[in-house]
Amino acid sequence: MSGAFSESKRNYEPKTYGNKTMSNYAHPEVLVDTQWLTEHLTDEKVCIVEVVTNPQAIPSQVIPGTVVWNPFIDLILPNFTVNFDKANIETLLSRSGITNDSTVIVYGELAGVGGWIFWLLKIFGHQDVRILDGGRNKWVAEKRPLASLENVANPTHYSAQEADGNLRVLFEDVRNSINQQDSVILDVRTPQEYSGEWFYDKPPENGERGGHIPSSVHIYYESALNEDGTLKPIEELRQMYESKGITANKKIIPYCAVGGRSAHTWFVLKYLLGYPNVRNYDGSWSEWSRRYEAESK
């Protein structure tokens, strides 16, 4: 994937802010801070996307020039799996004013949203995707400019690649990785979900199965974040994951409930720490808990 970074590096100047240097990450070009975005709001090549996970709370004001995506309409099928239809992503990007050479900045109010959209756009081969570090909350906290949501863009004709299966892992691969010394299955849900107390964000009901995939290690995905929602320095991230046996020489399989939070962890491990063999299990607990072959603890 080295070619995917060439254009980004040419246009990106790493910045130091807070208690970290972004250039210390394996691929600093995939992050932008609020100051960088402020300086590039009028750049015609920059397209900004906010993903709203609560359809009842679509913001009336957004970062100027932003288009809003509703994942439950735009990206997720009725059975809560990701829509990997190439035509669907082409339609979404085209109506959002995004071209194949656009610099796409993604963010949301929830920390994991940016990583999930980053992963999904990489699945379909978009080269220049970057996450706004700290997302909407940091932008608003700093009293940076907002504009009324128009959600109208000049349509384009986007041409996506076929979905790249190398960035995701399927049920059988996960099952074959249980208790394997060269693999780590990483559960990034809340502790209550991991223990089986919760099913997503509520107690299990109507036959729902709580628990976790056998042999999986638990690190909550938000553990990678500072209190302001920005990503922790590389030294803290490396120590946190390595202390749980999550090392660069192993195959790492993050999962959550429906693949969104685990995509954020995939992003951290692959792009910030530079782990070479990380694949997101987007089927996650939603699939695993319903497959008759699976066993939960």
TrEMBL record:
Taxonomy, superkingdom: Bacteria
Reaction(s) the record says it catalyses: thiosulfate + hydrogen cyanide = thiocyanate + sulfite + 2 H(+)
Rhodanese domain residues: 89-148, 179-297
Keywords carried by this UniProt record: Repeat, Transferase
One family name in Pfam for this protein: Rhodanese
Keyword Transferase: yes
GO molecular function: thiosulfate-cyanide sulfurtransferase activity
Protein name: Sulfurtransferase
Organism: Calothrix parasitica NIES-267
